[in-house]
Amino acid sequence: MASKNASRALRSSLRQLSAPRIQQRTFAAAVSAARPAWQKAATPAFVQQSRGMKTVDFAGDKEVVYERDDWPRDKLLDYFKNDTLALIGYGSQGHGQGLNLRDNGLNVIIGVRKDGQSWKEAQQDGWVPGKNLFDVDEAIGKGTIIMNLLSDAAQSSTWPHIKPQLTKGKTLYFSHGFSPVFKDQTNVDVPNDIDVILVAPKGSGRTVRTLFREGRGINSSVAVFQDVTGKAEEKAIALGVAVGSGYLYKTTFEKEVYSDLYGERGCLMGGIHGMFLAQYEVLRERGHSPSEAFNETVEEATQSLYPLIGQNGMDYMYAACSTTARRGAIDWSARFKENLKPLFQELYESVKTGKETQRAMEYGSRSDYRQAFEKELEEIRGMEIWRAGKAVRSLRPENN
Ligand SMILES: NC(=O)c1ccc[n+]([C@@H]2O[C@H](COP(=O)([O-])OP(=O)(O)OC[C@H]3O[C@@H](n4cnc5c(N)ncnc54)[C@H](OP(=O)(O)O)[C@@H]3O)[C@@H](O)[C@H]2O)c1
């Protein structure tokens, strides 16, 4: 029902993006006028600013954010001039962060196992065996900063072998708090005489790379687990900028891993997939066609409404829809929240107690994990909803 209005609103907002600034202001002002005063007051404000660091008021809570402006390329090159960045693992993050570091001119080498898929992929990306591509041990031996971007399960299984190589003076870098935070399960007990830091891009490694190439930067979390030199935080921020971050949000290893595992199981991926399936199935059981069920569940969401939330927030999306759609959606959002909150509490508990870690480790340690995952993807691809989606996508204007 929201569809016509929202599609119209999206088309209109897209037109606004290419429209002269004066018209954009008129449209923005119209939507903004629909916002209550308290919401206007909650707009983030820079309450304090020194070069490269801001304390930002996020809806009443003040948080520290670092920005890349304080770390221009020359300064990065000078800061890391005596370092060799040994990036081990070349999955999604290894690819994105590694190529960005290389393009920034830093001395970066890759360490992966020689018989693996990553070895081939690294070569395809121009890493040269013996020059800047080595097996894991050799890379760690040469590195001063060890960037552990192996899969989380592999970080655990390889740890007994890797730990003795992390000698005093080296720095250990992660992109997830997983291994050290859940050390009782992962056995990743970091040596107590090295700095241990984290930069966790809030997006896939492919996005880390794409945004860098576009001259933009991804948002990342930054944290220090152990500061031996007194320079750990500074090093983490500099590395965060070097791998392609635009803004770095200060957090802790614990907070990063809890929120990350929770979010991806919830609204980011698992929860949203579950909602799509539940809504679609009811529509089909009530006699709606696959195309109608898909359009009202996924297509309109991803193509029309969610981009509006992304652009300007939930109130903006509601404001762009019909009075009828708005009324029902606001009423039902309370029911959904009420019913789903206990499930989210259960999920957070499952993360905090390490149950999710256990599950991820068991799955990721299977020798056939790639094949097992492919089998699950095949099942998802084969679901009626996603087969219907394929047909609907083929009818999008840009595909015709
Ligand atoms: N992907 C994301 O979007 C994302 C976002 C933020 C943070 N992170 C974090 O970044 C880190 C890396 O994640 P990722 O997604 O880039 O990589 P991944 O796909 O989870 O891991 C791939 C790498 O691990 C290697 N590997 C797996 N098992 C191994 C073993 N037993 N011995 C040696 N190497 C092994 C693979 O090498 P082979 O090819 O040889 O198997 C490959 O290079 C993780 O801590 C993850 O939580 C990921």
From TrEMBL:
Residues reported to bind Mg(2+) 2: D260, E296, E300
A single cellular component GO annotation: mitochondrial matrix
Domain KARI N-terminal Rossmann, residue spans: 62-251
Residue ranges of domain KARI C-terminal knotted in the record: 252-399
Entry binding sites for Mg(2+) 1: D260, E264
Alphabetized InterPro entries for the sequence: 6-PGluconate_DH-like_C_sf, 6PGD_dom2, KARI, KARI_C, KARI_N, KetolA_reductoisomerase_fun, NAD(P)-bd_dom_sf
Family note: Belongs to the ketol-acid reductoisomerase family.
Protein's recorded name: Ketol-acid reductoisomerase, mitochondrial
The organism of origin for this protein: Saxophila tyrrhenica
Lineage of the species this protein comes from: Eukaryota, Fungi, Dikarya, Ascomycota, Pezizomycotina
